[in-house]
Amino acid sequence: MPFTFAHPAIVIPCKKKAPKYLDLSALVIGSMVPDFEYFLRFMPKGTIGHTLIGSICFDIPLVIILYLLWEYIIKKPFILSMPQPIDKKFSFLINEKKNFTIKKVIVFIYSSLIGIYSHILWDSFTHKTGFFVVKLGLLSNKISILNYKVPIYKFLQHGSTVIGSIYIIVYLYSLMKYTDCNMKFFNKEDKVNYWILVIVITFSIFLYRITMTLDFVSLKYFGIYIVSFISSILLSILIVSFVFKIKYRN
Predict the structure, then answer these.
(1) Is there a domain that residue 144 lies in?
(2) CA–CA separation, 214 vs 121, rounded Å?
(3) Which of 166, 138, 163, 164 is nearest to 153 (CA)?
(4) Among 63, 92, 193, 199, which residue is least crowded by beta carbons within 10 Å?
(5) How far apart are CA 40 and CA 36, in angstroms?
(6) What is the pTM assigned to this prediction?
(7) Does 241 fall in a domain?
(8) Is 193 among the domain residues?
(9) What residue numbers bound the domain in which 138 lies?
């Protein structure tokens, strides 16, 4: 599969085309959420996140949960813990007003579905068992790259990840324009403490995962290691952000 955090690249342009009819947060979270089943399991194994039924029963509720966690726990401490001038350039996001109306909830839901189905569609071209990979034999053909035989779908997987990641970096850079001078920013010590805690908790969770819940350390668990490490980072950011949210309540 393409890297989870490259998936928003396919939906961000949609918001630019129809800004009044789409919710960017829902598009972005929705475009990543099918893979969050892996992160919740701490392993690259899923049964529902990438299915049509799962998109309603699992993905939509998870989009809502992740959105609330981001908006009300993670966003402010996370942005304020960024190094200068990144913290100031993205500070405008902290004070965005959120008004919940029936219309906006409806927009949020269908924007989430657009994001979710964009993810499933992207994976269907870049995964060995993907719908179009199975239906189109061409995608399973191999091409030579530096004396290595690589299936076309695998080339599309990694190629689209690189392109998508570059697009997101450029997009984020384009947002770095606004400075909220009236906001109280974290000092250097606070920022260092935030990231030290994130690192310590991340490795604590990760080491517990690979030493206490797996039979032994082996390369056969490589996929589990990668997913578990990402899961550990996400969980540690949530924990530390919650602590800082309480500490700097005002």
Answers:
(1) yes
(2) 33
(3) 138
(4) 199
(5) 6
(6) 0.91
(7) no
(8) no
(9) 4-185
